[in-house]
Amino acid sequence: MYRRPKRKPAEHANQERWVISYADFVTLLFAFFVVMFATANADKAKARAVSEAVKAAFSQGATRDLEAALEQVRKQQLPTPTSAAPSLTHSQQLLEQALQDEIKRGEVEVHMEPRGLVVSFKQGALFDSGADTVKASALPTMQKAAGVLIRLQNLVRLEGHTDNLPIHNLHFRNNWELSSARSIAILTLLSDLFGIDRRRLSVSGYADVAPVASNESEEGRAKNRRVDVVILSELGARSEPGQAGILSNQPFRKQ
Predict the structure, then answer these.
(1) Model pTM?
(2) What ranges make up the beta strands (E) of the chain?
(3) Which of 123, 140, 111, 127 has the alpha carbon at shortest distance from 230?
(4) At which of 40, 75, 110 does a domain end?
(5) Confidence bin at 216 (pLDDT 50/70/90)
(6) Worst-scoring range by mean pLDDT, 101-115, 130-144, 158-172, 228-242?
């Protein structure tokens, strides 16, 4: 008796195959954004960290395309990141040369700090005791300093300091007012007389809270009575409000 062979039941089509293709697509899309991020990021260390993090996240099932994308990130020649404290060495040399006579007389000091280049003017070189009017004899000195400042784009902070001896006269109730007024006087001089852009300038008055020497002696108090012109490095300028908008088209010069 002839028996017809049993037909194998029809195999159901795999309706979930799209999941594999979708996963590959998402993985490649993620890799694409990683490459775009790394290209826009000037910090190689961060780019490398992102690459390694993504690789670790997909270590259990990373595709060959993702590995290739990550390798491309590592090989890219990204721009060298800007130093946290741009070199102002050349500007320091220019200022020391221009102000060499004043430096020899002890009227001015020039030194470098992490926040920038500090040009420290002793009070006696700029102001009479208890006053905020710049002496006429100080104008040639300030002109020399302004000649260097005007060649830069760095932000400049003008900081007034006093000793700890109280002051109370017809113009100032205390050392806070005096130190602030002297900073403003230097700002006005640099801006109105020597053409320094006011948007680059800021003022601070510290009274006697930031001494550089002991106030127990007249010599120390004389050192503390000063106005510091601080040419801010990029690191120092980060704390200045609105600095990105002010100088967005004028990058810091590495002098």
Answers:
(1) 0.63
(2) 108-113, 116-122, 156-161, 201-205, 226-232
(3) 111
(4) 75
(5) very high
(6) 228-242
